[in-house]
UniProtKB/TrEMBL annotation:
Keywords: ATP-binding, Glutamine amidotransferase, GMP biosynthesis, Ligase, Nucleotide-binding, Purine biosynthesis. Catalyzes the synthesis of GMP from XMP. It is an enzyme of class 6 (ligase). Its EC number is 6.3.5.2. The gene is guaA. It comes from Pseudofulvibacter geojedonensis. This is GMP synthase [glutamine-hydrolyzing]. Residues 191-382 form the GMPS ATP-PPase domain.
Length: 507
């Protein structure tokens, strides 16, 4: 496996994505973490950084176990680092280079550039530049503005590049990483979904043995794939619990339960809708609603877990982006780990050991692992749905009547997207019940009823998003259907806000 040492660049995660696309397993660790050991890795990549090697406190790391001993690739800050601290000179560049550039010179004898031709477009993002290289370093590529755009060290398997091969705009970036990892470092490309499944199943068996494991299913992709992996490993010792919080989509509880049955999972459906409604009664503040839902979920889940005699483990569908400790931009050792908000962070009193089979993989890898195990394509392609469900799509207080109304609206919208072949083009979609009433006319009657908003966004990770340009004819049909079929709704609007500054959910 490959180690990516993170010096705090915004795009370090992308390096990992590119490496894994080559079917090579890698891990990201902060440069100042105590948790990695160079001995366990076949090659090392140094990431970029918001810092300058000439700054007051540049991030530093002891590379004596690596440099000259293992294949080593420095990217951006990593390249400047390997020059500056080993006898070269880094200074501020006359022209700051941000964005596209072309490699005007390439040394094709260098194995790093095998199969890459001069002129290749790369992505630069730096204000420092390498002015001179130490003696045994050899420049192997330049751009118009940057003489030392890439170098190698004679007698070592050390390479460095000023540009970012990991970003999409570096056209031959993946090829370059392949040259380094496969041809120079000799790493085998064995990280496939099938191998991941086999290795993870073996790991779970080893870790959990004959113990019982409880897992909270949500109907979503992550918890489902986690459940199927565990089921493969420990079979009937896996106890899944699917809680109906009364805030799911229309008919979702029964249809998802049925689907799980067909997959051979041992699932207990627990309908706790009333408990959730009771706790939510009269609450309008979004965070108060989230808290109430989290609390009831823990109560219900704890109660169910207690019914399983001698259960020792709690399984969770946590994925890699939730786990990666990245170096914060100020360079401090502050490690931010997001809490797994679907579960709301289970309390210590449950005294269960944790098993998280997906904690080292990204969302698209979860989907591929799921496909490799034969999980239904429709299930794997489901839109994300928030843990608090429709409670954060009903602005204001929650009543069972409002939930039922919104479920109808949502079902017409989502089914419409499916029927028109739009569902898979949208990253997430849903309907929002607004706390306003407006005047309308139906037949000869004046109406004074509710308004709903439709939201459909495209995104890659939910961090940023843009509204989807759905066809007018589609919106027209859905709007008609909703107003004609859902009693109490007489107005439909479409949300055309991007994130930021808006968010995907309204609460
Ligand atoms: P926002 O509204 O923050 O949403 O732009 C980003 C993504 O996160 C989901 N979301 C949640 N998921 N618990 C969850 O499990 C929550 O409290 C929550 N709030 C938002 C949202 O659906 C979108 O995919």
């Amino acid at each position: 496996k490959i180690l990516i040492l993170d010096f705090g660049s915004q795009v370090t995660q992308l390096i990992a994505r590119r490496v894994r696309e080559l079917n090579i397993y890698c891990e990201i660790h902060p440069y100042n973490s105590k948790k990695y050991n160079f001995d366990n890795f076949k090659a090392v990549i140094l990431s970029g950084s918001p810092h300058s090697v000439r700054g007051e406190n540049p991030p530093k790391v002891d590379l004596s176990a690596v440099k000259g001993k293992k294949p080593l690739l420095g990217i951006c800050y990593g390249a400047q680092y390997l020059a500056h601290f080993y006898g070269g000179e880094v200074g501020s560049s006359n022209t700051r280079e941000y964005g596209r550039a072309n490699l005007s010179y390439i040394n094709n004898e260098s194995p790093l550039f095998k199969g890459i031709d001069a002129g290749s477009q790369v992505w630069m993002s730096h204000s420092d530049t390498i002015l001179s290289l130490p003696d045994n370093y050899k420049c192997i590529a330049s751009t118009h503005d940057v003489a030392n755009a890439a170098y190698e060290i004679e007698g070592e398997q050390t390479y460095a590049i000023q540009f970012h091969p990991e970003v999409y705009h570096s056209v031959d970036g993946t090829k370059l990483l392949e040259n380094f990892l496969v041809h120079i470092a000799g790493v085998a490309q064995e990280w496939t979904p099938d191998n991941f499944v086999d290795a993870t199943v073996a790991e779970i068996k080893e870790k959990v043995g004959n113990d019982k494991v409880v897992l909270g299913l949500s109907g979503g992709v992550d918890s489902t794939v986690a459940a199927v992996l565990l089921n493969k490993a420990i079979g009937e010792n896996l106890y899944c619990v699917f809680v109906n919080n009364g805030l799911l989509r229309k008919d979702e509880f029964s249809s998802v339960l049925k689907q799980y049955e067909g997959m051979g999972l041992n699932v207990k459906g627990v309908d706790a809708s009333q408990q959730f409604y009771n706790e939510l009664k009269g609450l309008s503040d979004p965070e108060a609603k989230r808290k109430a839902i989290g609390k009831v979920f823990i109560d219900v889940f704890d109660q169910e877990a207690n019914l399983i005699e001698d259960v020792k483990w709690l399984a969770q569908g946590t994925i890699y982006p939730d786990v990666i400790e990245s170096v914060s931009a100020d360079g401090g050792p502050s490690a931010t780990i997001k809490s797994h908000h679907n579960v709301g962070g289970l309390p210590d009193f449950m005294k269960l050991k944790i098993v998280e089979p997906l904690r080292m993989i990204f969302k698209d890898e979860v989907r591929r692992a799921g496909a490799a195990m034969g999980i239904d394509k429709n299930l794997l392609g489901r839109h994300p749905f928030p843990g608090p469900g429709l409670a954060i799509r009903i602005l204001g207080d929650i009543t069972p009547e409002k939930v039922a109304m919104l479920q109808e609206v949502d079902a017409i919208f989502i089914n419409g997207l499916r029927e028109h072949g739009l569902y898979d083009k949208v990253w997430q979609a849903g309907a929002i019940l607004l706390p306003v009433q407006s005047v309308g006319v139906m037949g000869d009657e004046r109406t004074y009823e509710k308004a709903v908003a439709l939201r459909a966004v495209e995104s890659t990770d939910g961090m940023t998003a843009d509204w989807v340009n759905l066809p007018y004819e589609f919106l027209q049909k859905v709007s008609n259907d909703i107003i004609n079929k859902v009693k109490g709704v007489n107005r439909v609007v479409y949300d055309i806000s991007s994130k930021p500054p808006a968010t995907i959910e309204w609460e």
